[in-house]
Design a protein that fits this description.
Order of helices and strands: HHEHEEHEE
Radius of gyration: 22 Å
Distance between the termini: 70 Å
Strand content: 15-25%
Shape: elongated
Number of strands: 5
Oligomer: single chain
Helix content: 55-70%
Largest sheet: 3 strands, antiparallel
Number of helices: 4
Strand order of the largest sheet: 1-5-4
């Protein structure tokens, strides 16, 4: 083998390793936010499904629905679990009101039509 072929092989291997390592660092940095987004997405889906069958939903019902909800990314041992159901339910409903998916009527919430 020529010396230039060996040097180019080492350089390409180093570049590939650097790219994979950088990608892993970026994924790890954003992991907590990604897990929270996944939790909100799952909770959002449950609330929407409930509101298709029922006209109104309360915070207590959202608490019951989201109890035990977890989010986990593929190829990762980390997961997000809801510890305070009431706080999560309030934040989820607030997010859904902000994004125009539901509207508040007194202490109840209903789907926007």
């Amino acid at each position: 083998m020529e010396l230039t072929t060996i040097i180019l092989g080492v350089i390409f291997f180093a570049i590939a390793t650097m790219l994979i390592y950088g990608w892993g660092l970026a994924k790890q940095k954003n992991q907590s936010q990604d897990l929270m987004n996944l939790l909100f997405s799952k909770g959002n889906g449950k609330v929407k499904k409930y509101l298709k069958k029922n006209e109104y939903i309360t915070v207590a019902e959202v608490e019951k629905m989201t109890a035990g909800l977890e989010a986990k990314q593929p190829f990762s041992g980390n997961k997000a679990v809801i510890k305070d159901n009431r706080d999560f339910a309030l934040k989820l409903l607030e997010y859904m009101v902000k994004t125009g998916q539901i509207e508040k009527e007194g202490s109840r919430y209903k789907a926007v039509k």
